[in-house]
Amino acid sequence: MPDDSRSQKMGLLGAISYIVGNIVGSGIFITPTSIISNVNSVGLSLVIWILAALISMLGSFCYVELGTSIRLSGGDFAYLCFMKWYPVAFAFMCIGCTINYPATLAVQAQTFAEYVFRGAGVELDETSEFWAKKLLGFSLIMILMFMNFFSLKTFVQRFSILASIAKIAATLLIIITGFYFLIFKDWTQNLNAPFAHSVWKPGPFVTALFAGLFSYDGWDILNFGAEEIDNPKRTMPLSIVIGMTCIGVIYVAVNIAYSVVLSIPEMLSSDAVAIAFAQKTLGPAAFVMPVMVAILLIGSLNSTMFSASRYLQAVSRQGHIPSAISGIAPNCDSPRVALLVHILISMAVSFMGDPDKLINYVAFAQWSQRAFTMSALLYLRFRGRPRHPDRIQLPIIMPIIFFFVCTSMVVISIIDDFKSSAVGLGILLGGLIIFIIFVWDRALPSFEGYRNVTKSINEESTKFMQIIFNVIPERVGDEEMKNAIGGAESESEKVPTDKISPLENGLNKCTRM
To answer: Which residues cross the membrane (predicted)?
Structure first.
């Protein structure tokens, strides 16, 4: 008789589909112009797309080892907490809440507005167009927030299917059309001397690479579902290689198609490259492109909003930000307060720059965090710290190379574009200062008066949010960290519970995968 629990697990094909479906999305319609503007050649832009695929594949392998070694949900934040690097974990948690998710949502909303305006042929003066696009993006965000407030699952699920169809259709339409003109119409003029006028300077190269990696974002998705995969030691490596190779081929094919039809000046003059492509090749049918891209962007916006609100709510449940944000609507499990907070932050962040600038903010923050996370993995490996016995272990050279890649990109970004890096560095520094002053148990929390005042404010604000949003706050119960490593904790690693500070007790509340 077959094992029902085993039969319900994800096989190789399911894991490949999971990777491809999670990564291929709005990025391919957002970042091609940014990459071309930095490297200034078709050939080098294709190198960037291939290199980004290889880096993402390597990162995916490293995170699978980390996720199977330390079986905690919460991603990088949970791993840094496990290492007891609490100040670093708190600082990067601040970046996740204020930059990573909000800026991603802002980029998607701005791109949606751009495609709608270009597709509808709306032309306004510069100031009016700026505010009209902002208001259109904000209106869409508010509608999606309302849907998520009431967890309209049937509608959201059906729309997700429509968004997936639009994503596949738009991508295939671009590839088939571009290669048709290349093969049957002999449009090769834009591919002659593909590396002519290339910009090889480290700064622009890394900026272009950040834009390419933004399109591959989500490569760590298997890290969050290792326990749902059948025979993970075989399935996960194979699915990563096959899935990332498929995505790399798709992205390179799409960009070849763009380059066949559009010259570099034409790409640089368009903020909606897929529309410029369609107008030059599809004639009267060009209207289908902005419609399909707009639909898939709505799906991407909803996915980002869903993930970001759950991240905020999880951080609040663990006691790191006010407990009012942890509130869940009892009738539909919607984190309403977290949704509102995330959207308000996203709206504010959208005024910090254009999509290219926001992508740089996100990339610097993400890859700085990944450098620290890789250093945690290397520390575990070199120091022989306890890890889960059923982990997937890579050759040590792979996490070393990935750590070097992450660190190099971050350092070059700081040297070449300090203004963009300063935003992430400033929030990191602010997070450390907040931790030291307001969280560290030897600072303000050591005073009883401070603890009483903050407890009172937290309780009153939580009650207020409960009434306004009809939610119930949640808190994570205490759980031994040794569960995360399958009981592999050595005697030397055990710490008596009476020696654990209140701070460590709070930060140790990371839920299992």
So the answer is: 12-30, 42-64, 85-103, 135-152, 159-183, 203-226, 238-261, 281-301, 392-415, 421-440
